[in-house]
Sequence to fold (445 residues):
Amino acid sequence: MAEQLVSTVDEQALDEVVTFTSELIRIDTTNRGGGDCKERPAAEYAASKLAEAGLEPTILERTPGRGNVVARIAGTDPSAEALLVHGHLDVVPAEAADWSVPPFSGEIRDGVVWGRGAVDMKNMDAMILATVRQWARVGFRPRRDIVIAFTADEEASAEDGSGFLADRHADLFEGCTEGISESGAFTFHDGSGKEIYPIGAGERGTGWLELTARGKAGHGSKVNPANAVSRLAAAVARIGAHEWPIRLTPTVRAALSELAALYGIEADVHAADFDVDGLIARLGPAASLVEATVRNSSNPTMLSAGYKINVIPGEATAHVDGRYLPGTEDEFRATLDQLTGPDVDWDYHHREVALQAPVDSPTFARMRAAVQEFAPEGHPVPYCMSGGTDAKQFSRLGITGYGFAPLKLPEGFDYQALFHGVDERVPVEALHFGVRVLDRFLRSA
Ligand SMILES: [Zn+2]
Fold:
């Protein structure tokens, strides 16, 4: 065990993580949804880097051009459960005019790598590549089998990416019980000097709703008690104003407990009269790590009805971005039935499961330890993601997903703002930290 406590990442791995991040950014994999994306060149790039390390990657496509890559590293203990390490290759669009640098330049300037995907998540893709290539150089084999997957289509439906892999290529993930990927173990600066490292251990489910109100079409000057627009507007207003009740999942309860301890706030998170909102109000900026995940949510986002000002349409539609916590889907559905009322129908436009991962598992403890080793001043805490990742699709294979893509960010780098934001960028030092922590965790996993 002793040799595992020495930093095992060499100079070449530190160089490669930066080069690979930059080069992956230069491969434009903008995903505009509706199938408008080509991940294939990025998939070939990643596959070639894995092949150079002696692995045998497979490129898989459901739709031509939508490349996914899967490779397996055989562990030393064949009886151990396998670990999935995955990252998506696509990125959200970037409006070049808004940026300080061309968003697909991958420019490295003043110790910072710039471009779309620098934090979401070509950084992690590069960290995975740099780590396993170093293992090949020194002949290291992990204890567990490690399955590496680079996916297409995460930023849209995942149908050409993790959904396709989970449904059609389950055999490639045989033995995988746990997975790690994006949106965890980054530095969250609380503004008063504390550095928090939220590690993802759950995701809210996606419940995107389509509402349809039907009524009686007619002249706008007449009496009409069955006006579809009024019916829809009333339902949308009720949904938007609804105060969802507190529903604490084990992950969020643990997050609240650890944050309370960190700020020296007395709170018994298991007490029946635990004042959740009262605690959150005292957490300062750190409240943003938990406030969106203590209850379900339903935000109206789209409205559509009518074609002429003096014609009452017979139908009106709306869309609502709903999110529900693990274990609350039945309640979510029943509440929506109530809020929409008898005159408005609703259905799922898109639905994805909610996820819950244990925070008392050996794997969670190892992620926490790996962060603490390289950021001794940091405070790792579990958290639940308010949105979703590829982990939802891989959960169909019985894989428990964690958010662990370590990055040590300096003050002023607001991870959540850079995510899908303008001038997305990542410091070279953050990538170096990431590859060290990822290597340490994977060696211990
Ligand atoms: Zn992402």
Notes: The first helix runs from residue 11 to 26. Residues 1-5 have pLDDT under 50 and may be disordered.
